Amino acid sequence: HALPYLAPAVPLGLANYIFDLENIESAHAAGDEYPTRKVMLANGLASMLGCLMGNPFPVTVYVGHPGWKAMGASIGYTLASGVTMFIVPLFGLGAFMLAIIPMTAIVPILVFIGVVTANQVVRETPKVEVPVIFICLFPWIANWALTMMNSVMSAAGTSAAKIGTDVLHSKGIYYEGLMHLGNGAPLASMLWGCIAIFAILNKPLRGAVAAAGGALLALFGVIHAPVVGFAEGSSLMFVTAYLMMGGMFVVKHVLDISVNPPLPVGEGD
Length: 269
Known about the structure:
By secondary structure, the chain is mainly alpha-helical. It has a domain of about 130 residues. The protein contains 13 helices and no strands. The relative contact order is 0.07.
């Protein structure tokens, strides 16, 4: 009975895994070191416990540690947040809270957290690696645009399939491109970042491995596809592209060896 639900569950689990690692690293950069294994175990066990109790939402380490820290939040804030998130749904107070607290009072806090986090990322990243940050944003921007477009079309009672991608394309909306680039954004952004950083640091073998991983994920529809499954049609372009990129990295590695052959063992001592 669980097999049909694995398609959305596996990518969501992988995305949460990546989010956890990213936010643990963000806290580390802000001067607060947390044991990765313990955090991941606590997160996973909490998600499993919630599932057993009928909670459909997985638990993840929340983003914005530098921002919360800059606002003076500590363990008391975490405790208060947990208690609030327990009481509000328990007594059905969600609609009441949204009625008395306008969204305009909440959004500025999230904007501040985003700005502080982005500032930390740029500040803590070596200058030569800064372009990687913006390369990683491309899948997320496409994901945001795709979500907005689908929401607008849904509100209008239609969809891209009904309108037709050719009609959208004639109006300058490249829906298929957004669909492929936006789906699987958490994994795709990490993958693109790996490929970019290995190219910048001249580590072609690692770049080839990252590209091969991208080809494998694209082949099974984990990234660059609307549903998980064996890639077909336009999704196969990405499999080919990653394989070509991996081949270029391998060629670069071979050329590097031919120009600067490795020293025999003991000769460099």
